[in-house]
Amino acid sequence: MVAAITPVKKVLILGAYGMLGYDLQHVFPGAVLRGHDLDITDAGKVTAALRDIKPALVINAAAYTDVDGCEDHRDVAFGVNGDALLSLARACKDAGACLIHYSTDYVFDGTRTSYREIDVPHPVNAYGESKLLGEKHIRETMDDYRIIRTSWLFGTHGKNFVETMLRLSREMPEVRVVNDQFGKPTYTADLAQKTAGIAGLDPGIYHITNEGVCSWFEFARAIIQNVVPCSTAEYPRRAQRPAYSVLVNTKTTPMRSWNEALTAYLKEREA
Ligand SMILES: NC(=O)c1ccc[n+]([C@@H]2O[C@H](COP(=O)([O-])OP(=O)(O)OC[C@H]3O[C@@H](n4cnc5c(N)ncnc54)[C@H](OP(=O)(O)O)[C@@H]3O)[C@@H](O)[C@H]2O)c1
User: Fold this and answer.
1) Which of 12, 20, 187, 241 best tests ligand 1's pocket when mutated (most atoms within 8 Å of CB)?
2) Is residue 4 part of a domain?
């Protein structure tokens, strides 16, 4: 369960009906909620909405998150994840609002075993490129921003790896999962809660994940029993994935481990 805070400032949540967006709603009760009805690629509508709502804090959870889809629909990916952030950052600056935006471990190439906030990004797929463009627009346009890079999200309000594993485990005798891509699974309820704390910290980039590193296979083994390891070469996808997309948080207190978070998630989905 996500604990609510009582915000003293007017908060606007964009992408409020996505997986993370739903958990943000619980952390920021009273926030103005906008879903896909406010298309963030429509600069005129975004500017008008901010003038009308006059938020002190804008939290943007809207994104095009289909990593393979981004390869086939680069224009959509770069529009939603990249260019939309230029107009959103301008509108936030004009309105005097702070912007909290989410980015991804996939801005890194995974050739090193871990990445700090100051490390230089180098994406290997269109999703990562488009998210990095969004980061660049924000950093170059405004000062009062928090960019939260996170990874491998699972939450009760969206399609996610945990649900996919539970479904496949029922449908087939043996589930094959890659054992050579490593990252940090992160519960959206924990990330939403942590977002409230990040709002009070200095502007900049933050790496926020649950603690602990695992491969997708190791993550799957914590969810289901009938899983066997395979290699990325045996399971090709349209988008290349970084081998090690491990974000290191050097700026704020760590969150609980992904194992603990997974246990909480599994309990929550049964409730
Ligand atoms: N999921 C992950 O594993 C992961 C990992 C690292 C970082 N992140 C980042 O974390 C953030 C939240 O991710 P999530 O998993 O919660 O995403 P999600 O469940 O896919 O939600 C994204 C929301 O954005 C909305 N949206 C898409 N295009 C839009 C547009 N043009 N205008 C307004 N809304 C639009 C979607 O609406 P529709 O459903 O109607 O399209 C959806 O409700 C994103 O910034 C993502 O890049 C996610």
Assistant:
1) 20
2) no
Contact 161 CB / ligand 1 (< 6 Å): no
Q: Is residue 6 part of a domain?
A: no
* Residues whose CB falls within 8 Å of the CB of residue 111, separated by 6 or more in sequence, listed in order: 242, 243, 244
Q: pTM higher than 0.70 for the full model? A: yes
Mean of pLDDT values over 172-195: 98
Length of the chain measured in residues: 271
Q: What is the DSSP letter of 121?
A: P
Residue 3 lies in a domain: no
Distance CA 180, CA 183 (A): 10
E-state strands within 166-203: 175-178, 182-183, 186-187
Q: Which residues are known catalytic residues?
A: 127
Residue 152: name the closest of 92, 207, 105 by CA. Answer: 105
